[in-house]
Amino acid sequence: MSIVPLSGLTTTDADTAQPMTDSQPAHLSVNDLTAPPHRGILTYMRRSSPLNTSQTEGLSRFRHLLLEQPLADLRQHFEHPERPLTVEIGFGMGQSLVAMAQAAPERNFIGVEVHIPGIAQCLYDAGTAGLTNLRVIEGDALVLLAAMPDASIDRVQLYFPDPWQKKKHHKRRFVSPERMALITAKLTAGGWFHAATDWEHYAHWMVDVLEQVPGLSNRYGPGQFAPRPEWRPLTKFERRGHKAGHGVWDLIYIQQE
Ligand SMILES: C[S@@+](CC[C@H](N)C(=O)[O-])C[C@H]1O[C@@H](n2cnc3c(N)ncnc32)[C@H](O)[C@@H]1O
């Protein structure tokens, strides 16, 4: 099994989320091998853009930080597999993930993304910073999580996920009862799910969903948003939200024993 080669970019139709056949990669991606929980409904849209110099270098020089296979238990890929594992879903360009990994050498971090320039940039930044506690995976996080052992991730973080603003696209929002059932199965007892968004409608949507997820409890009390943690670095999309005059809402839910 191999992950789609990083040159095999696809574009995706927003309504059907089906890859366009004229630009499909020649090789299988993990998506072809394992059915995601919501087959046919993707939480992302692939965007293609050329790689800049550092991104190109990131892919060649630091490719060892990109996990290809086996994907099963992600902890085994670290020098210290016993350390708690944080998985970030949709890290974008990765600057905040790299900063978090740098600030917490006592933890292991895995970033999952489908956006190739972001993956390449994250590899470059992590590699040039000499990080040993961060690995990157290209692919749909839902597929990856489904292949992980239960109760093996200490924290899952989802920062500024695509808000899928139109009502007809709400089914593509990452936070849904079905997708959260998968997340909670993978969290350790006492582990947490941390989400942040600058989209007010999605913030309240998240609360509505998360309050109903069996086994999760809101760290700040039922229905409460979390104060913005000072250890969460500003992300690219958060900065964009600030410029547009948006608020920011954090939510932290703990997996019960
Ligand atoms: C709006 S961007 C936010 C990026 C970054 N977290 C930030 O705050 O700057 C959302 C990202 O999530 C990624 N994404 C969405 N669903 C995903 C999935 N199921 N697996 C992996 N990445 C996903 C998208 O490719 C996109 O880069």
Explain what the structure shows.
- The chain has 257 residues and is an alpha/beta fold.
- It has a single domain (31-255), classed as Vaccinia Virus protein VP39 (Rossmann fold), CATH 3.40.50.
- It is built from eight helices and seven strands.
- Strands 3-2-1-4-5-7-6 form a seven-stranded mixed sheet.
- Helix 3 links the parallel strand 1 (85-89) and strand 2.
- Helix 2 (53-61) packs across helix 4 (116-128).
- Mean pLDDT is 86; it is low at 1-5 and 7-36.
CATH fold naming:
Rossmann fold
So what's the CATH class? Alpha Beta
Cofactors, ions, other ligands: S-adenosylmethionine
The total tally of domains equals 1
CATH superfamily: Vaccinia Virus protein VP39
Label the structural class: alpha/beta
Question: How many beta strands in the DSSP annotation?
Answer: 7
Secondary-structure element order, as H and E? HHEHEHEHEHEHEHE
From the 3D coordinates, which CATH architecture would you assign? 3-Layer(aba) Sandwich
Instruction: Please state the average pLDDT score.
Output: 86
Binned, the helix content reads: 25-40%
* Distinct helical segment count: 8
| Share of β-strand residues | 15-25%
Poorly predicted regions are 1-5, 7-36
User: Order of strands across the widest beta sheet?
Assistant: 3-2-1-4-5-7-6
User: Distance between termini?
Assistant: 35 Å
